[in-house]
Design brief:
172 residues, alpha/beta, six-stranded mixed β-sheet, 6 helices, 29% strand
Length: 172
């Protein structure tokens, strides 16, 4: 939200943001990456199946960010679309605190792989794919609508896409 406001006010020329709101015509975005969101648990609490239905995830005790957070809104919308209710036992703003709550086994969470890749690789956390629906979020390279071209804009855009592509490769 802070970056979107900066773009709207002309304080920021270019930003990476998740999920462009259709009601914000003053910002234009180019999608650069789509991330799948995963169920993240302590390893001993992970479901046996590699894929878990969203209905099962909705019934779990969860730790999520506040109601304005894009992932939280996406999860709540998926639940609403299926006439389900999610149970948010812990509402935290910090990714570090979210990981800690999950590692302590107090709740599960729904996060993109990149935010917990190190913990999954080390065995401190486990992840499972979510199905019906698969939850995804899109990263956009955003700018104010109607802003003139940057000096060497093609080069800047190529660099930004390259950075995102390399980040995605590093997280695989």
């Amino acid at each position: 939200i802070v970056l979107e406001l900066g773009l709207q006010r002309g304080e920021i020329d270019l930003a990476f943001i998740y999920e462009l709101a259709p009601e914000t015509p003053s910002i234009t975005g180019t999608p650069v990456m789509v991330e799948e969101l995963l169920l993240v648990t302590r390893p001993d609490q992970a479901p046996e199946a590699e894929t878990v239905p969203f209905a099962d995830v909705a019934g779990m005790e969860l730790v999520l960010a506040h109601a304005r957070d894009p992932i939280r809104r996406l999860v709540e919308q998926a639940a609403l679309d299926r006439a389900l209710t999610i149970k948010v036992d812990y509402e935290v703003q910090s990714l570090q605190a979210t990981r800690q709550v999950v590692q302590e086994g107090l709740a599960a969470s729904i996060l993109p792989y990149g935010t917990v890749a190190e913990e999954i690789a080390s065995g401190r956390l486990a992840s499972r794919r979510i199905a019906d629906p698969v939850l995804k979020r899109t990263l956009f390279l955003a700018r104010p609508t109607g802003r003139g071209a940057f000096l060497n804009e093609d080069g800047i855009m190529k660099l930004m896409r390259s950075v995102v592509k390399q980040l995605a490769v590093d997280l695989e």
